[in-house]
Write a structure and sequence with these properties.
176 residues; mainly beta; UDP N-Acetylglucosamine Acyltransferase, domain 1; twelve-stranded mixed beta sheet; five-stranded parallel beta sheet; Hexapep; O-acyltransferase activity; Trimer_LpxA-like_sf; Hexapeptide_acetyltransf
Length: 176
C-alpha cells in the first residue's frame, strides 16, 4: 500500500483529536459533521472494514483510550458520545437514527442521542439503538440489542438486552 493510499484512508482523521489515532486495516470515515477523539483511539479495520460517519450537523465524540474492533459501524446523525476506556467488539453497530419511520402515524424524531459511559465493554455483534445511555463500567454481552438505557455496573445480554447481573467494580479499576 502506497503512501497516498494511506493518506486517503486517513483523510479527516488527522483533523480531530489530540493525537493521530492508531489505525490498522481499512477504516472509512465520512466526516461531514464533527468528529472528536481523545488520546489513544485505536481502530482495527481487518479482516473487516470499519465505517465511521458523522453527517452534517451531527457530533461524534470518542473519549481517551477507546478501542474499535473490526467490522464496526458507527453513524452519528445527531450525537454519539463514547466515554473513556471503552472497548467495542467486532461487527457491532452503533446508529443514533432509525433512518425511516415505522408507519404513517410515527411522528417522533428519527435521530436520538447515544451516550456510552466510561470503562464500558461492548461485545461482538451488538446493536446499540437510538436514544440509549449505557452506564459506566457496564458490559454488553455478544449479540445483544440495546434498545433501552443500561445502568452503571451491570452485565446485560439478549435481544432486547436485559440485566443479567450486577458487577463489582472497585473505584479506579479500568478494564484491560
Amino acid at each position: 500500500m502506497g503512501f497516498n493510499t494511506v493518506l486517503y484512508k486517513l483523510k479527516g482523521l488527522y483533523k480531530f483529536g489530540k493525537t493521530a489515532p492508531k489505525l490498522r486495516g481499512k477504516v472509512f470515515v465520512n466526516k461531514f459533521g464533527t468528529i472528536k477523539a481523545g488520546k489513544n483511539l485505536s481502530i482495527v479495520g481487518h479482516p473487516w472494514a470499519v465505517q465511521i460517519t458523522s453527517i452534517k450537523g451531527a457530533n461524534l465524540t470518542f473519549g481517551d483510550n477507546v478501542y474499535v474492533n473490526a467490522g464496526v459501524g458507527i453513524a452519528a446523525n445527531k450525537e454519539i458520545v463514547i466515554g473513556n476506556n471503552v472497548k467495542i467488539g467486532p461487527r457491532t453497530s452503533i446508529f443514533d437514527s432509525n433512518y425511516h419511520r415505522m408507519d404513517s402515524t410515527d411522528k417522533g424524531e428519527l435521530s436520538k442521542r447515544i451516550q456510552i459511559g466510561n470503562n464500558v465493554w461492548i461485545g461482538a455483534d451488538c446493536t446499540i439503538l437510538p436514544g440509549v445511555t449505557i452506564g459506566d463500567n457496564s458490559v454488553i454481552a455478544a449479540k445483544s440489542t440495546v434498545n433501552r438505557d443500561v445502568p452503571n455496573n451491570v452485565l446485560v445480554g439478549g435481544s432486547p438486552a436485559k440485566v443479567i447481573r450486577e458487577l463489582e467494580i472497585e473505584d479506579g479499576w479500568i478494564r484491560d
